[in-house]
């Protein structure tokens, strides 16, 4: 399945496009390419991976603050440099990347050939970009209207992003079945990238949905009241990937992290399990990923960052990756026992921090979730709790 990235702004587009394509590599692809618009348009594409594209571009000037990038999974046309996206229209007015299949591309291609258009590739995407250009030039309409008129002639599925060289201050995006691509489409795309595809056919019982709702509300509530926890973006109980729900955060970029910051993050991670205990007076297996995260973070505090007073200013981290110890531990059994105790102590501190928030958390959680209501997402504004506030 193809990956699409577009950027327009004040920064250089090239590193943003390449990074975006790398984050979409999980989708599978056979070729990659980018186009960047400055005073002129430069397009680079090749068969292979994004790393191959970077090697292909190496040494070339790729300055510009507007661009599009694409990873292709071949449908019409074999995987090669010519069939890779982006595709440029014959007279150079439009550059397009496309995900989907244009079912009537063969007929549209024949019509355009009769009008003098010649094609370099075997793709339906090149047909589409030339169709848009033809309407743009003959009907003498804006680029946006030309795209809309062209898509009325198209049969099939599509998601596409277009640069019009004559109107370099915008990117045009279109999607099958949508009159316009709006903010919600981008938010949905973020959800899919972070959490995976929504599993609409997954059967979740009302009791499980209620437990997940309180669990995720626990994460939301605790993180909201901690000084150093990452800002909360969204809480959802829509099943995605292997999870039944999730709390998503927007971490601050920190070059140096202090112990109290790490403890707050651990406390927020344990908020879900703690909420289950508060509300149901029992716990479940739903906190597996939270426990894994907390345990790894606590062990890193002790064995990597030297943040344990009893273990001292030592690290057992090997930055070279060439461990000299093989299958042996670089410390004694006595030290191993001390490390285990210090890891448990770090986790216990984060639990104590949750308990110190007291009944206010319990009331906030109860007010934040209406288990009788069938909902897919909880936003903080629905809590309606005047004492629930972001620290301080």
The number of distinct helices, counting runs of at least 4 residues, comes to 11
- Main sheet specs: 4 strands, antiparallel
CATH first level of the largest domain: Mainly Alpha
**CATH architecture annotation of the largest domain:** Up-down Bundle
Rg calc: 26 Å
The rounded distance between the terminal residues' Cα atoms is 46 Å
Strand content: 15-25%
**Which regions are unreliable across 5 or more consecutive residues at pLDDT < 50?**
371-392
CATH fold node name of the largest domain: Methane Monooxygenase Hydroxylase, Chain G, domain 1
Shape: elongated
Helix-and-strand structural type? alpha+beta
Mean pLDDT: 82
Helix percentage range: 40-55%
Number of strands: 11
Question: Can you describe what's shown?
Answer:
It is a single chain. By secondary structure, this protein is an alpha+beta fold. It folds into two domains: 3-181, Aminohydrolase, N-terminal nucleophile (Ntn) domain (Glutamine Phosphoribosylpyrophosphate, subunit 1, domain 1), CATH 3.60.20; 197-382, Peptidase M41 (Methane Monooxygenase Hydroxylase, Chain G, domain 1, Up-down Bundle). The protein is 41% helix and 16% strand. The chain is built from eleven helices and eleven strands. It has helices at residues 13-23, 50-57, 105-114, 124-139, 143-152, 183-195, 206-225, 259-280, 288-303, 333-356, 359-368, and strands spanning 3-8, 31-37, 41-47, 66-72, 87-88, 94-102, 156-164, 171-175, 232-236, 246-249, 377-378. The strands form three sheets. It has a four-stranded antiparallel beta sheet, with helices on one face. It has a four-stranded antiparallel beta sheet with strand order 5-6-7-8, with helices on one face. It has a three-stranded antiparallel beta sheet with strand order 10-9-11, covered by helices on one side. A hairpin with a 6-residue loop joins β7 (156-164) and β8 (171-175). α9 (288-303) packs across α10 (333-356). Mean pLDDT is 82; it is low at 371-392.
